[in-house]
Design a protein that fits this description.
Length: 246
């Protein structure tokens, strides 16, 4: 078990899938956690109760990651509830499929707002609250490095942008002792991309391990980067995709 006792974390998009696994794993390792959700109120409430049953503080904050004002408010609410912040995990994301020739500009903008602008704005508002030992971890995608099939170009673009965001921000915050890193999952068994879905066999075939990842496995990578064990790691990308881009 990694010791995160006394640490206070904010996880965006933390009520479902990978985000929920990250939220719970941080709490299991000792952190108090605030997390945002957009529509899954029942799941958010259940997750908060699970965290509280571990003896940790938890707060579920309804916020649309496409709304800059909601982002600012959610950070303020997290700081107020937890008494400060030490860890930010940018996990909220959306995706749309389709070719560039048929691109719907509203859908394109929504992807960029949530997947790129939101991590930037969450970081902007959290940075004033971080001190030496602070952590910013963003969940990207292996599709940011390799696009093995058509129809996902805007999503892949949005995830590729997070590499430069991570590297650049690590340069800005390094002198303060704050690390900034990126985790890139591959196909992971969630409601959005189930391991028994229509395209699952194809996605498994892209990997070295021949299987999907589990949300907990991605959460383990995030918890490691949030811990003192990763104190010298910054500006780095940890790919957890079963070897899909090997």
């Amino acid at each position: 078990m990694i010791d995160l006792k006394g640490k206070r974390a904010l996880v965006t998009g933390g009520s479902r899938g990978i985000g929920a696994a990250i939220t719970l794993a941080l709490a299991e390792n000792g952190a108090d956690v605030a997390f945002t959700y957009q529509r899954s109120a029942e799941k958010a409430e259940a997750l908060a109760k699970s965290i509280e049953s571990l003896g940790r503080s938890a707060i579920a904050i309804q916020a649309d990651s496409a709304d800059p004002q909601a982002i600012a408010h959610s950070v303020s609410e997290a700081v107020s509830a937890l008494g400060g912040l030490d860890i930010l995990v940018n996990s909220a994301a959306i995706g749309h499929t389709g070719t560039i020739a048929d691109l719907d500009m509203n859908e394109y903008q929504a992807v960029m707002d949530v997947n790129v602008r939101a991590p930037v704005l969450f970081a902007k508002h959290v940075i004033p609250h971080l001190t030496d030992g602070g952590r910013i971890i963003t969940v990207g995608s292996a599709l940011g490095e390799r696009v093995p099939f058509p129809g996902i170009t805007p999503y892949a673009m949005s995830k590729a942008a997070l590499t430069s965001f991570t590297r650049g921000l690590s340069r800005e915050l390094g002198p303060q002792g704050i690390t900034v890193n990126l985790v890139q999952p591959g196909a992971t068994d969630t409601d959005a991309n189930p391991a028994n879905g229509a395209a699952a066999d194809f996605q498994k075939g892209l990997t070295s391990l021949g299987r999907y990842g589990e949300p907990r496995e991605i959460a383990n990578a995030v918890v490691f980067l949030a811990s003192p064990a990763a104190s010298v790691i910054t500006g780095a990308t940890l790919t957890a995709d079963g070897g899909a881009i090997a």
